[in-house]
Amino acid sequence: MTASMAKGADSQSVTVNSPPSVILSLPRTSLGHSYCFVCKKPGPKLVIPSVRTRFLAYTKKKEKKRLDFDNDDSLTDEDYQNLTGLSRANFDDLMTYVERIKSTKARSPRTCIALLLTKLRTAMSNKLLGTLFNMTKSQVRRAVATGRKALMDKFVPQHLGFQHVSREEVKTKHTRPLARELLADDMTSDPVILVLDGTYILYIYIQKSANFSFQRHTFSMHKHRPLVKPMMVVTTTGYVVSVLGPYLADTRNNDSSILKHMLATNAEEMKNWIQEDDIFVVDRGFRDSDILQELGIKMQMPSFLQKGSKQHETEDSNNSRLVTKVVESANGRLKSWKYLDRVLPKTQLPYIGYYVRIVCALCNRYRPPFSRGEEESDVVMAAKMKHLSKQSNTLQQRISDEGLDKRSHKWVKMNECGHVPEFPTYTEDEIRELTLGVYQVKMAKCYSQEHVSEDGVYDILIDNVNDDLLSAKIQSRHTSAKQYQCWIGYFDGAVQSWYCKCKSGSRVVGCCAHIASVIWYMSYARHLPDSTKGVRDRGVGIFDASNVPDPIDESESEEENAHSDMEE
């Protein structure tokens, strides 16, 4: 067959020859039953599927994936963030570290990494992931394992471990100026400041094992459930230097024993990395450890409550606050990866350490620090805290001398006496400067919600004799039978002193959450239209079995009815 086209007056005829046949890329089955219509391989053990099965195999063989990380137009940046915890740009950067993943018909290298991150981020089962990625459960399991090995091979070693970061980099980039001013200002050397904690930063809960010996060793008497615990080494900005373990949870694996094991085995050659005069901020679980002192490392920890005492001394409580102020917990950030916050099956026990390291490396690479702090503001705050730490609690002494905590002393409720004290007003930022922390203000809203009645009244006690003082009894958030009485002194338009009977209530370097609750309400919340703002009651619709109405005496009811009938 020929075709001619005219191109004006001097056009030429062009002849096009049609090919004898045209090959179309369409899937088809063989004519006989000796070959598989899916893989095209011969038997011998083959079955004849139904017509509908053959039709679905034909129509869905080239079907598009539900979640396609290989197509730039398939997912938005928000989709990447929701599924993997990383933006598209961060995910692309992560893929530059991935090597040795071969593409197959079921998944690509990007799909492997996306499956792993989606599982860590959302804690979805392999079966559900298979539905989203249009894969079988076994294909998802193999893809997750492949992605895990690929990240552990190159990405994690470059972003986690003592050897991935230099001492100088930790000092200049990952140490907050406030920590240096509070803990190392009187030292002639320039030490590295690290935070060690294996008790509250991250617990990984696991299923109960049928192996009784392993079950005993993983059962935590503190949490009353089986778990394993990684030991994390963190800087004062929240940057994770290293993750070691995970370790068992029995009494033989306390913080002190774990630290001894780390140094005895020289894990990650950490003994070559740390130096004499370095500072390790630890919690009270390390109190029996003397191995750091043998290495010349200075250990900073909160003070202990003396035996038989109900409250820390003012000096001890002040010094403890200097230590806890520099600690930034990575717990909340890591637990945003929901897989680490669920009870892991026994089959995943060998891989727990890998998952924790991958998440920590991702946070180091793609998350900003908790707080680097500004040099000038940190120096000012440190100077203020150190000055206050040398002060005594004058209000505590006044309460003791005047007997203001005795039952014989008369306190009246503010809403009953008709007298409203001229308490100073503050903004929330000013309250944070007063309490020297954000946690106290956060907890103040929770305490206030419980103590503000339905008509918006907070039970504040005032003294008609001492018009520069007010008091309140704050319910313990842990024990129903316990209340903490606190006092706040104010004059010249400012809060000047405070004292609470809780364990840390005598400190003057900041204040406890009970005192912060009263200050937050009196100086800020009561001036708002809704004084209970900040905490919503989610208990609506939940019944309390102890709240039973008084029974009705039927005899009295019958007598009342008879009496009313007689009157009629």
UniProtKB/TrEMBL annotation:
Top-rank taxon: Eukaryota
Identify the keywords attached in UniProt to this record, alphabetized: Metal-binding
Q: Using the record's annotation, list all stretches that form the DDE Tnp4 domain.
A: 204-364
- Region (Disordered) residue ranges read 544-568
For this protein, the record's InterPro entries field holds: HARBI1_dom (IPR027806)
Cofactors (names): a divalent metal cation
Answer yes or no on keyword Metal-binding: yes
One MF annotation (Gene Ontology) recorded for this entry: metal ion binding
Kindly indicate whether the keyword Metal-binding belongs to this entry. yes
Identify the PANTHER family for this entry.
THAP DOMAIN PROTEIN
Identification of the protein by name: DDE Tnp4 domain-containing protein
- List the source organism: Pinctada imbricata (Atlantic pearl-oyster)
